[in-house]
Amino acid sequence: MNELQQMDQLFDRLFPLFRSITGEGVRQTLGILGEYLPLTVEEVPTGTEVFDWTIPKEWVIREAWIKDSEGREIINIKNSNLHVLNYSEPIDRIVSLSELKEHVFTIPHLPDAVPYVISYYKERWGFCMSYDQLTTLEEGQYHVYIDSEKIDGVLNYAESILPGKSTKEVLITSYICHPSMANNELSGPIVAAFLYNRLKNWEQREFTYRFVFHPETIGSIAYLAKYGQHLHENMYSGMVLTCLGGKETPLSYKMARNDKTPMNELVQFLVKHEKRKMTIRPFTPLHGSDERQFCSPGFNLPMGQFSRMIYGNYAGYHNSLDTKETMTIEALLQSVDELEEILQLQELNGYYHNLKPFGEPKLSKYDLYPDINSPLSWRGSTTTLIDNRQHLNQVLMILNYSDGEHSLVDIATKMQYPLSNYQVSIDKLKEVKLIDGPFCNKEGVAWR
Predict the structure, then answer these.
(1) Which of 283, 280, 281 is nearest to 297 (CA)?
(2) Alpha carbon 230 to chain centroid distance?
(3) CA distances from 265 to 262, 349, 410 (A)
(4) How big, in percent rounded to 5, are the helix, strand and coil portions of the chain?
(5) Which among 155, 292, 157 is positioned nearest to 214, based on CA atoms?
(6) What is the DSSP letter of 84?
(7) Sequence ranges of the domains in the chain
(8) Strands 235-241, 278-281: parallel, antiparallel or unpaired by DSSP?
C-alpha cells in the first residue's frame, strides 16, 4: 500500500475506539500507533499530583442507552461513542421526559449533529443526541442506563525518539483522547506517525526528534511534570499537531509564546519572503491545544502549533459532523509533505562560522568561481537548478555573514532567494572547509 492507503487504513482502525483521558481506549490507540512507530508507553497512577493538577480516576464505560416505556431504543453507544457524556457517572433509573432533558446535551444551531461533551472533574451523568432527535421524544417515562465506574488506575502517554547528530531536540506532540472525531482527533496522531517514518528515512538528522502522544491538557501537564526540566535544557523547537485535515485549506501556524523561537522566525520568513500559502496566528492562552501548557510561563518552551481546518472554525468541531469525508486523508498526506519540508529547512537554518574570515577566500582555489552549475536536490523533492550567478552570490553572502551573528534566515532575507536554494552552496562550502556549522544560536553553541 502507498502512504495514502496506509493512512486510510490506520484511520479506520482508530476511529471506532472509545477514547477518553484515561482508560482502555487510550491504551488500544497507543497499541495500534505502536505498529507504525516504536513507542515507549508510560503510566501515571491515579492520585499523582502533577503541578496544580491531580491524575483522576480511570473511567471504565461498558454500556449506555436510553429506552422508552415500550422498551424501544432511543440511543446506544454501540452506534456512536458520542452518545454518552464522557466520564459520566453510572445511572439506572426511570425518569420523566422533563428530567431526561436536563441530562441530554444537543446543539440547537446544528440540529442533526451529536455533540461531544465531557465532565472529567465534576460528577454528573448524561447523554448526547441530535437536537432533531430530542424534539421528537414524546411525553412519558424513559429508562436511562449507564454502566460505568471510576477506578484507581493510570493515565497513559507514550513517546518515540529519533536520534540525530545533536542532543538538541525537536518536540512533536499530538493528543489521543477524543472519541469518534476525525479532524479534531485522528488527524494529529496519524500525521505524527507518518512524519516519524519520513524523518526516519532521512540519510542524516542534525536534531534529535521526540514524538509524544498523550491525552490533551492533563496528559501534557503530566508529561511536563516528569520531562519539563529535560525539555527546558535540550529543546530547540517544537510543534503541537492538531486539526490537520480540511479540503483546500492552507497550513496554519500558531506562534510560540516566545517570539524569537526558531520555528516562529522560519515560518514568518517562508510566509513573508517566499509567499508560502500558510497563515500565521499569534500565540494566545485563550484557546488552542497543548501549546498552552508547553508555553506556560514556568516553561516558556519554543512550542508552536500546526493546524489546517482550525478548531472552532468549522461546523464539525466537537461533534459528529467531524468525519473522514470532511477531513480527507489526502489533506493529511499533504500535511505530512509540508511539515517534512519545514523540518528540513529548520535543519538547514542556523548560524554558520566562516573559517577563513580575513578577506574573501580565493574562491577559484576551491572550484567556487566562476563556473559552477550545481543541481539542487532536496531530499526527494523536485530537483531544481541554480545558475552560476546565483550560486556565486550565495557563496559570497554566506561567507560574509557567517559570523555567528546572522542565521541562514537572516542571510536569505537579504538575498531574496528561497531558503532551500542555499543547500547546494552550504554543502560545497562545508566540503572545502570554508564554513562550519550550523550552530543553534549566536553564542556558537553547537548542535552536537
Answers:
(1) 283
(2) 20
(3) 5, 10, 9
(4) 35, 25, 40
(5) 157
(6) B
(7) 3-56+154-347, 58-151, 351-439
(8) unpaired
* Cis peptide bond N-terminal to 438, omega within 30: yes
**412-430 pLDDT, tens per residue?**
999 889 999 999 999 999 9
Residue 139: C-alpha distances to residues 68, 125, 331 (Å): 10, 21, 46
* Sign, Cα dihedral of 420, 421, 422, 424: positive
pTM: 0.93
| Regions of the chain short of the pLDDT cut 70 | 369-385, 442-448
CATH class of 351-439: mainly alpha
User: Given the C-alpha cell 521526540, which residue does it identify?
Assistant: 210
pLDDT in tens, 355-400: 999 999 999 899 886 544 444 433 333 334 577 788 889 999 999 9
Q: Which CATH architecture has domain 58-151?
A: 3-Layer(bba) Sandwich (3.50)
Q: How far is CA 425 from CA 297, 367, 371, in A?
A: 40, 12, 13
Please provide the DSSP assignment of 117-157 as one string. -B-SSS----EE--HHHHHHPPSSEEEEEEEEEEES-EEEE
Q: Which residues contact 133 (CB under 8 A, 6 or more apart)?
A: 74, 75
The DSSP secondary structure of 2-57, one letter per residue, reads -HHHHHHHHHHHHTTS---SSSHHHHHHHHHHTTTS--EEEEEETT-EETTEEPPP
- Decide: helix, strand or coil at residue 360: coil
CATH number, span 3-56+154-347: 3.40.630.10
Q: For the chain, report the end-to-end CA distance as a whole number of angstroms.
A: 37
